[in-house]
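quick one, 439 residues, struct below
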Amino acid sequence: MPLLSDYTKTLEPSAIRLAGKVFSERFDKDSIRAYNVAIGNVSLPSFEVMGTELIPIFDEEGNVIKERRVVKYTDTSGTEEAKDAFRHIIGLNGVDVKDKYAIITSTGSSSGMMYTELLTGGMVNEIDRSIMGFAPLYANYMQFADMFKIKIAAINRILEQNGKFTMPSEQEIERFIKEHNPNALILIPNDNPTGSHITQEQINQIAMTAVKYDIWLIEDAAYRGMCYTGHSVSSIWNISENQIPGITGRRISLESFSKYLNYCGGRAGAMFTDSKEFYDAFYAAQTALLCASTEMQEEIAKLQNVSKSSFDAWLANLNNYYKRMMESFVTDIRKELSGVIISNPDAALYSVVDVRKIAKPGFNAKDFVLYCAGKGAIVYNENDIKTALVAPMAGFYSNEEGKTLGKTQMRIAYVLWPEEMIKVPRLFADLFKEFEANR
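---
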């Protein structure tokens, strides 16, 4: 039999997709209702101008209509209409990227992050350079880094009893940079997985440090505008050269319509940069995947004419929807599990649940997740059997200290309909108690 590469020896499914994969292999899955809050796969309808209809291929007599449109490849960077649509919507969201280089990425912002890591981390002038972040950080960053043998060096943030994640000080960030010699730094202003918000003041401080140590500054903007604290939109693009000399030419943002336009399956993403050198390298890398979906680009091009009033109303309603759901969930899970720690959902659409104060010694969140997905089931009545799918947090940390923190933590995604999401706190608590009783 042929052999697979050594890479496969340590390859595991993403922490985000793990529970779903295990549940899909259960023999009794058809009799159990799985509440999947492990992945940010939103349930809401997409932005109204994105609706499409199937185009008939037969006429009234049943003959094939030959005059059908041809779907050709676009330029590797995408169509100008799609890029302008991204510029327009990002602008409505309070950030100006009109004069930045842009590429429509081939599989949402996921491929954008993959190429960005490949181009900024690893061997740089024959020196192995890491990519820096703030852990817990999006699990797929580590997955991409492993593919290319790039080191992710992340400062661990601590989930405190009050539901707030700590943020490292300027001095801690500088010490970390000196120790790990990163070539790039990733931040998520509205953070996945913590639900924290990084303010413009904090981003400015991080940007000054990036300039001081001459490293790339990467912003993952998938949750742009999804903030529930009253803060204005924060971004690396809200910094001028006058404010921080040297900021120009090192910024990269990865944009997506998956979350704030509810377009997850559309895989609509883009990369923006103010570095021509990075743009050229990214373009060359993406040529291997030819281009983003032509049909997806045609869909998002419709967004070029969305009015500010329409977008503002959309975003306000979206944020109100999530804020109510999150506040209800946090209140309810604290009632159901006395002593549980849950992160305050200030932004994005996630919370981290930590059972370190209430679990018996030796608790491992991954074991709990596999139990819930593989055989756990709460029988409320013969026609009401449920389990919950959540994401183990160890996969969101890059070092052993962080993975230890993650052993008692799980990520919850606020993606079910409200009438379903309201059932998750009790279900989670019942599964946790059942798991602990049998351990």
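The radius of gyration is 22 Å.
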